[in-house]
Amino acid sequence: MLPENSKPPRRPVPGPKPVAQCAPIKALSARARELDNLDQQLRRSLPPPLNERLHYAGLRGTRATLLAESSTWASRARMAQPKILAALRTLGVQAETILVKVVVTPPRPAEPNASLPLSAASAQHLRAAAKAIADPELQALFLELASFAEGDSCS
């Protein structure tokens, strides 16, 4: 029996745990932050052409893994291995060799082109087409589209 002044233990709230309370996610997030921090520090210490094209991916045993955008940059990284290893050691990474993996990054989506303004002639054609359409909703859409014409004063 519980004493009169004590409350019964609260039952946990049903449902999934918040992500912040999941130990594996917390550890994974901390590791990702650590790798990102090391990557930024390494890139600051590399010479300009390499610092834009290489990323630090981790350490397994005594082998540091770097990611390169292409085989060309992977070759350059292998040629600069002594400099890269020295930079890693100054950051506290005890690597003896490097492994460079080529990772193709997906192309960045192209920014949409600015739409061209609708000419007055196009607006006239849209109005003529709207007159020939029996459906009032479709006719209204054509007329609305015609109203976007540059310098249109007929809408």
Q: Which sequence of strands runs across the widest sheet?
A: 1-2-3
- Major β-sheet annotation: 3 strands, mixed
**Shape annotation:** flat
Instruction: Report the uncertain regions.
Output: none
Overall SS class? alpha+beta
Summarize model confidence as the mean pLDDT. 85
What is the distance, rounded to the nearest whole angstrom, between the alpha carbons of the first and last residues? 82 Å
* Strand content range: 5-15%
Question: What is the CATH third-level topology name of the largest domain?
Answer: GMP Synthetase, Chain A, domain 3
N-to-C order of helices and strands = HHEEHHEHH
Give the tally of structural domains: 2
CATH class of the largest domain: Alpha Beta
According to DSSP, the number of beta strands is 3
Second-tier CATH architecture of the largest domain: 2-Layer Sandwich
| C-alpha-based Rg, rounded | 31 Å
Q: What is the CATH homologous superfamily assignment of the largest domain?
A: DnaA, N-terminal domain
* Tally of helical segments: 6
